[in-house]
Design goal:
Layout lengths: L149
Length: 149
């Protein structure tokens, strides 16, 4: 499924564990409650996609475009989000425990009550992000931009 074009596709609740969606075009797709544990989504375009309550544990989203995506209550533990565009995303109560967010763009992201326990946010841009109630215990914030948080 690498490089697939699934723009605005309805994939709600599907089991896609370990699937290779590298470079796929999934902008505006509905992946709510989907099972994507260990999936390969490197460089994928998921701008505006719905991924709320999805299981994304251990998935690879390196350099993916998730701008404006809905990731509320998604499980993103141990996920690789290095260099990903997560600006303007909804991450309310998302599980990002031990996630790799180095150099990620989290500008204006809604991280209300998100679990960022032991997350690596080195060099991440959190300008204007809402971190109200977020758990940052053990998180690496070295060189992170925290303006307006």
């Amino acid at each position: 499924m690498r490089e697939s074009i699934l723009t605005r596709a309805n994939l709600y609740g599907l089991r896609l564990n370990g699937v290779n969606l590298r470079d796929a075009r999934l902008h505006g797709a509905n992946l709510g409650c989907a099972e994507l544990e260990g999936a390969e989504l490197r460089n994928a375009n998921l701008a505006g996609a719905c991924l709320n309550e999805a299981n994304l544990i251990g998935a690879d989203f390196k350099a993916a475009n998730l701008r404006g995506a809905d990731l509320r209550e998604a499980a993103l533990n141990n996920t690789d989000l290095r260099n990903a565009d997560l600006s303007h995303t909804l991450l309310h109560q998302a599980g990002l425990d031990s996630a790799d967010l180095r150099n990620a763009d989290l500008r204006e992201a809604e991280l209300y009550e998100a679990n960022l326990n032991n997350a690596d946010l080195k060099g991440a841009d959190l300008t204007g992000a809402n971190l109200t109630g977020a758990n940052l215990t053990g998180a690496n914030l070295e060189d992170a931009i925290l303006d307006g948080c």
